[in-house]
Design goal:
alpha/beta, Leucine-rich repeat, LRR (right-handed beta-alpha superhelix), Rossmann fold, 25-stranded mixed beta sheet, seven-stranded mixed beta sheet, elongated, membrane, leucine-rich repeat, signaling receptor activity
C-alpha cells in the first residue's frame, strides 16, 4: 500500500487518532503492522516548505510535521496518527492513499455540514470500524449529514458534546452494534431515532438529562444491554424482548415494570426512590442478579423474589428495610450471594432460608440483629462467608453456628459479644474469624477454650476488646498465622504466653496498656526448639504502649532490644515495638540506658535480703547491684546497716547532702561506691572505708587532713576520687594528706581544684619537704637574726664592694684555675647529675641545640638531667621533679615568658629553691631568655632574682659565667680551656 504526502494546512483545533488493531494473535499482529504500516510510513516523507517543517525520529519511528501551531504525528510502534489543528476551518491539501483504519479518535473539532466522512476521505482513510468523538461542536442538532456514509462503523462513542438528536441522526451508521452517548446533555429521545440501527446490541445513554423513555422506543432493535443511569427518569416501562442487562441507577424512579423483559438477566436499581414493588416483580424474567442500594424500600412485597430458579445474586443494601417477608426467596434455590447489609433488621424469620441450600455468601452486616437462632441458619449447609458485623449481638449460643460445616469466613466485628458458648464456634473449616470491637474479656467458656474446634483457622482478629491474657488453648490452633490483639487490656506479656501461639507469622499487640514484657525465660524456650522443625523463625510480634514501666522489670526485654541475647533467641522471636515510658516525658523505651533500669528494693526477690527502712533502696540488674540512696534526708548519723542480699555483687551508698560528721566502720561491707559529699565530716579514717571501694566522693566537707601514716594497703581498687572544697591544711601536719594525693593523683577526678584552706595553692604541687620548711624553731630564728645583724655591721663595707664586683672576681679566678678553698666535689659526691635543666617545652630548641651540646661537649663535659630523656614515663610528675632536683648538683632555670606561663615550671623552681634553702647552698642558676614581663613573676621568683645574680642568653661572657656557676672539678685546673662557639640570634658575636 503506497501513501504520498503533501503539505498539510490545518486551520482547526482538531485531533485525529488512528489505531490499526488486526484481530490476530500478538505475533501475527506485529508482523502485519510492520508490513502494512512500514510501507505507509516509509512513504510518509518529511516535506519542508515555507509554512511547514518536518522531523523524522528514526530511533522512535516517529514523524512530526509542524505547520505553525498545527501538527501531524505518526508513530509506527504504537500505530497512532494524531492530527491537531487550531482553526474552525479545515482545508486539506494532502491525503493518504486509501488506508483502512480500525479505530478513529476525533476530538475537539467543529463538525462541518459535509460530515466526518468527507474529512477522513480527504485524508485517504477508509473503512473505520470504531469511532470516538470527544468534545465536538455542532451547528445545531445532530443531522444525518454529520454521520453520513459511515457504513463501516460498528462502534460509535460520542461524549462531552452537546447533542440534540433527530430521527435521522444515525441513518448514516446503519451497521452500529454499540452506541455510547454518555455525558452529552441529551434531554429528549425522538421515538424514531434508533429505528435504522437494526444491529444495535449495546446502548449507553447514561449521565444525561433524560426524563422520559417511550416503552416502544427500542422496538425491533436486538438490544441486549441498556444503560440509563444518572438521568432524571421517574418511571420505566420497556418493551424490549431481547434486553438482558439494564442499568437505571441514580435516577428518580418511583415505579418500574419489567414484565416485557423476558430475557432480562441483571438489573441495577441503585439510588432510586422506589417505595414498593408488586409481588413477584421479576416472575416473567430470566433474572440472575438484582442490585438495589441506597433507597427507601422499607416494605418488601411478599414473594418478592420467589420462584426465580435462575436468580444467583441479590444485593438489597442501605434501603432502610425493617422487616423482611419469610417467603421472599422461597423456591429460588440457586441463590449464591445474598446481601441485606445496612438496613434496620432486628431479626429474620426462622424459615427465611428454607430453600437457600446453595447459598455461599450471606451479608447481614450493619443491622440491628440481637440473636442468631441456630434453626435460622440450619439450611445454609454450603455457606462459606457470613458477615454479621455491626449488629447488636451479645452472645453466640451453643450450636448457633453448628450447621455451617463449610463456613470459612465469619465476621462478627462491632457487636456486643461478651463470650461464647462452649460449642458456639464449632465450625471446623473456618479460616478467618473477625471479632474486633466487641466486649470479650476471655476466650474461656465453661472451663474450656471457646476456639477449641477451629482446626483450620489462619486469621483471628480480636482487636479492641477487653482481653488481658492469652489462654493455653491457643496451642491447638496449629494453622494460625495471623492474630490481631491490638487495643485490648494486656498489661503483662510473658514468654509463656507467646509459646502457645504455634507457627504464628505475626501477632499484633499494638495499643495495649502494656507495662511489663517478661522475657526472663526466652533463652530457655529458644534453645528448646530443635531443628529442623524450627517454625518459630517466622514468629513476629508488634507491640506498642504508652504505659510502659521503664524499670528493671523490663530489663530482659531491654537486653533483647539491644541485641545482648544469643543469636538463637532472635531466630526464635522477632519484635517490632514502639513502647513509651510512663514517665510523663514520652521517652521511648528503646532509647533508655540499660544501666538506669532499677527497681524498688521491695520488688526485688532474693534470699537473705536485708530490709531498707530510712532510705530509698533499689536494685539494678545490669550489674546486680543494690543502690541505697540516703541523700538529702537531714541525717546527722550515717546508717550502720547497709542493704545486702545473697545474689547481689555489691552496694552503692549515697549519703550526699546531709549533716553527717563521722562515718561508721564500713571496712568489711561490700560497698563499691560511696558518696559522702556535701556533709560536715571533720575526720575520715581511710582504714575504715570498705576494702573493695572503687569510687569515693568526699568533696565539700570540713576535712583538714588524712591522718593515716601507712597507705600501702589502703584503697587498692579505687578508680575515682573527689576531694575538693575541704579545709585542707598545708603545714608539716599535712604530709600524710600530700602523700595520699601523690599516690592517688591519677584517680582524683578534681585534682586541679584541691587547694589549701583559704589559699589558691594546689595541694598536688606541694612536697612534704616544702610544707615542713616553715617549722623552724623560733629561738633559732632570733639568734640567727642577731648574729646576722652584728655580722652585717662588721662587714658592711666589704659586702658592698663584694656585691659590686663579685661576679667578675669569681669568673676571673675560675678562668685562671684558682679554686675555692673547700672542694665542692666532696660535698656532692653522691649526686647523679651535674645539673637539672628546667625549661618550658616551648623553649626546647634552645636547650637541645645550644645548651646541651655546649655543656656536654668539650674537654670538661657536664652530666645533665633532662625531662625528655631521663624521666620515667608514667611516674607522678611532682615526684619526678623532686627526684631530679635532689639528684642534681645544680638546677638551671631557663627563665622565659613560656616558663612563667607553665605551672610545672614554677613547681620545679619552688622545688629547687626549697632544696637550696634546706642545704644553705646556692643551687640555682637562672638563664634569662627573651623578653618577659616582671609583673608575671611569682613573689618567690621575683625575690630570688632581686637577691641573686643571673645570666642572660647572648651575654658576651655567657659560657664562662655558666661554667663558673656549675660545679667546679679539680681536674679542670691543669686543662687548657677550649673555645666554645655557639651562634645566638640575640648576640651574633662569636664567643671566645
Amino acid at each position: 500500500m503506497a501513501m504520498s504526502t503533501q503539505s498539510l494546512l490545518m486551520h482547526s483545533e482538531c485531533c485525529i487518532t488512528i489505531h490499526s488493531r488486526p484481530k490476530m494473535n500478538w505475533l501475527i499482529n506485529i508482523i502485519i503492522l510492520q508490513v502494512l504500516l512500514g510501507q505507509v510510513f516509509s512513504d510518509l516523507l518529511c516535506l519542508s516548505s515555507d509554512k511547514c517543517s518536518c522531523k523524522h525520529h528514526v530511533y522512535k519511528d516517529e514523524i512530526q510535521v509542524e505547520c505553525g501551531l498545527s501538527t501531524v504525528e505518526a508513530n509506527l510502534m504504537e500505530s497512532i496518527i494524531k492530527v491537531e489543528c487550531n482553526s474552525d476551518k479545515i482545508h486539506w491539501e494532502q491525503h493518504f492513499d486509501q488506508i483502512n483504519i480500525r479505530d478513529l479518535h476525533y476530538a475537539n473539532c467543529l463538525l462541518s455540514d459535509t460530515g466526518i466522512h468527507q474529512t477522513i476521505s480527504t485524508l485517504g482513510i477508509n473503512k473505520v470500524q470504531n469511532m470516538k468523538l470527544v468534545s465536538m461542536r455542532l451547528n445545531g442538532s445532530l443531522e444525518n449529514g454529520y454521520l453520513s456514509n459511515l457504513e463501516s462503523v460498528k462502534t460509535l462513542d460520542i461524549t462531552l458534546t452537546k447533542l440534540i438528536l433527530t430521527n435521522g441522526s444515525f441513518e448514516g451508521t446503519p451497521n452500529l452494534t454499540k452506541l455510547y452517548l454518555r455525558h452529552n446533555y441529551i434531554e429528549e429521545i425522538p421515538n424514531g431515532v434508533f429505528k435504522s440501527l437494526t444491529l444495535l446490541e449495546i446502548l449507553d445513554l447514561g449521565d444525561n438529562k433524560i426524563t422520559e423513555i417511550n416503552s416502544d422506543l427500542f422496538y425491533g432493535i436486538p438490544l441486549k444491554g441498556l444503560n440509563l443511569d444518572s438521568n432524571y427518569l421517574t418511571t420505566l416501562d420497556l418493551n424490549v424482548q431481547s434486553l438482558k442487562h439494564l442499568d437505571v441507577a441514580n435516577n428518580r424512579i418511583k415505579s418500574i415494570t419489567v414484565g416485557n423483559l423476558s430475557k432480562l438477566v441483571d438489573i441495577s436499581l441503585n439510588k432510586n426512590v422506589l417505595v414498593t414493588m408488586p409481588d413477584q416483580t421479576f416472575k416473567n424474567t430470566s433474572i440472575e442478579s438484582i442490585r438495589f442500594s441506597y433507597g427507601s424500600f422499607t416494605a418488601l412485597p411478599h414473594r418478592f423474589l420467589t420462584n426465580l430458579d435462575r436468580l444467583l445474586y441479590v444485593y438489597l443494601r442501605s434501603l432502610n428495610i425493617e422487616r423482611i417477608p419469610e417467603n421472599m426467596i422461597w423456591n429460588s434455590s440457586n441463590i449464591i450471594e445474598l446481601s441485606l447489609a445496612s438496613n434496620r433488621l432486628n431479626e429474620l424469620p426462622v424459615m427465611f432460608f428454607r430453600d437457600a441450600g446453595k447459598m455461599k455468601m450471606l451479608d447481614l452486616s450493619k443491622n440491628k440483629i440481637e440473636t442468631i437462632d441456630h434453626e435460622l441458619l440450619k439450611p445454609l449447609i454450603k455457606l462459606e462467608t457470613l458477615d454479621l458485623s455491626n449488629n447488636l449481638i451479645v452472645q453466640i449460643n451453643n450450636y448457633g453456628l453448628r450447621y455451617l460445616r463449610n463456613l470459612k469466613y465469619l465476621n462478627l466485628e462491632r457487636n456486643k459479644i461478651i463470650n461464647f458458648g462452649r460449642e458456639a464456634l464449632n465450625v471446623p473449616k473456618l479460616t478467618t474469624l473477625k471479632l474486633a470491637y466487641n466486649k470479650i474479656s476471655s476466650l474461656i467458656s465453661n472451663h474450656e477454650f471457646s476456639l477449641h474446634y477451629l482446626d483450620e483457622i489462619e486469621t483471628i482478629d480480636l482487636s479492641n476488646n477487653f482481653i488481658n491474657c492469652i489462654d493455653p488453648g491457643w496451642l491447638n490452633l496449629i494453622k494460625l498465622n495471623n492474630i490481631n490483639l491490638a487495643g485490648n487490656n494486656f498489661t503483662i506479656l510473658r514468654i509463656q504466653d507467646i509459646q502457645y501461639i504455634n507457627e504464628i507469622v505475626r501477632t499484633n499487640l499494638n495499643n495495649n496498656p502494656l507495662e511489663v514484657i517478661d522475657l526472663s525465660d526466652l533463652e530457655v524456650f529458644a534453645r528448646a526448639q530443635s531443628p529442623p522443625h524450627n517454625f518459630w523463625n517466622n514468629r513476629r510480634i508488634n507491640l506498642s504502649s504508652d504505659k510502659f514501666i521503664c524499670d528493671c522489670r523490663n530489663y530482659e526485654f531491654a537486653r533483647f532490644l539491644h541485641n545482648q541475647m544469643p543469636k538463637v533467641v532472635y531466630k526464635y522471636l522477632q519484635i517490632e515495638q514502639k513502647l513509651i515510658c510512663n514517665d510523663g516525658l514520652r521517652t521511648e523505651f528503646s532509647n533508655v540506658n540499660m544501666e538506669s533500669l532499677t527497681c524498688d528494693w521491695n520488688i526485688f526477690e532474693d534470699v537473705d535480703k536485708t530490709d531498707c527502712t530510712e532510705c530509698e533502696c533499689t536494685y539494678r540488674p545490669h550489674d546486680k547491684s543494690a543502690l541505697m540512696n540516703c541523700s538529702n534526708r537531714n541525717l546527722t548519723l550515717a546508717p550502720e546497716i547497709i542493704i545486702s542480699s545473697r545474689n547481689i555483687n555489691y552496694t552503692e551508698l549515697n549519703l550526699r547532702n546531709n549533716s553527717i560528721t563521722k562515718l561508721p566502720n564500713y571496712e568489711n561491707l561490700n560497698i563499691k561506691k560511696l558518696n559522702i559529699g556535701y556533709n560536715n565530716l571533720n575526720t575520715i579514717n581511710i582504714t575504715h572505708l570498705p576494702k573493695n571501694l572503687v569510687e569515693l566522693h568526699i568533696e565539700h566537707n570540713n576535712l583538714t587532713m588524712i591522718s593515716e601514716t601507712n597507705l600501702n594497703n589502703t584503697l587498692p581498687n579505687i578508680n575515682i576520687l573527689t576531694m575538693n572544697s575541704n579545709s585542707w591544711i598545708c603545714d608539716c601536719d599535712a604530709k600524710n594528706t600530700i602523700n595520699f594525693i601523690h599516690k592517688y593523683s591519677s584517680k582524683i577526678f578534681d585534682l586541679a581544684n584541691i587547694t589549701c584552706y583559704q589559699s589558691t595553692t594546689l595541694l598536688y604541687t606541694l612536697t612534704v619537704e616544702e610544707v615542713c620548711l616553715e617549722r623552724l624553731n623560733t629561738a633559732t630564728i632570733i639568734i640567727a637574726s642577731m648574729f646576722l645583724a652584728v655580722f652585717s655591721l662588721v662587714l658592711s663595707l666589704l659586702w658592698i664592694l663584694y656585691k659590686n664586683y663579685k661576679t667578675k672576681i669569681k669568673i676571673w679566678l675560675y678562668s685562671h684555675n684558682i679554686t675555692w678553698p673547700i672542694s665542692e666535689e666532696s660535698l656532692d659526691q653522691d649526686k647523679k647529675y651535674d645539673a637539672f635543666i628546667s625549661f618550658s617545652h616551648k623553649d626546647e630548641e634552645l636547650v637541645a641545640k645550644h645548651l646541651v651540646p655546649g655543656l656536654e661537649g668539650g674537654n670538661s663535659p657536664f652530666k645533665l638531667c633532662l625531662h625528655y630523656r631521663d624521666w620515667v614515663v608514667g611516674d607522678w610528675i611532682p615526684a619526678q621533679i623532686a627526684r631530679s632536683v635532689d639528684e642534681s648538683r645544680r638546677t638551671i632555670i631557663v627563665l622565659s615568658q613560656h616558663f612563667l606561663d607553665s605551672v610545672w615550671g614554677r613547681t620545679e623552681f619552688r622545688t629547687a629553691y626549697s632544696s637550696a634553702l634546706n642545704e644553705r647552698r646556692s643551687r640555682i642558676i637562672v638563664i634569662l631568655y627573651g623578653e618577659m614581663s616582671t609583673k608575671d613573676l611569682d613573689p618567690e621568683l621575683k625575690a630570688y632574682l632581686s637577691m641573686n645574680t643571673y645570666i642572660k642568653w647572648g651575654d658576651y661572657w655567657f659560657w664562662e659565667k655558666l661554667r663558673y656557676a656549675l660545679p667546679h672539678r679539680p681536674e679542670t685546673k691543669n686543662k687548657i680551656r677550649t673555645k666554645i662557639i655557639v651562634p645566638d640570634k640575640l648576640n651574633p658575636t662569636l664567643l671566645t
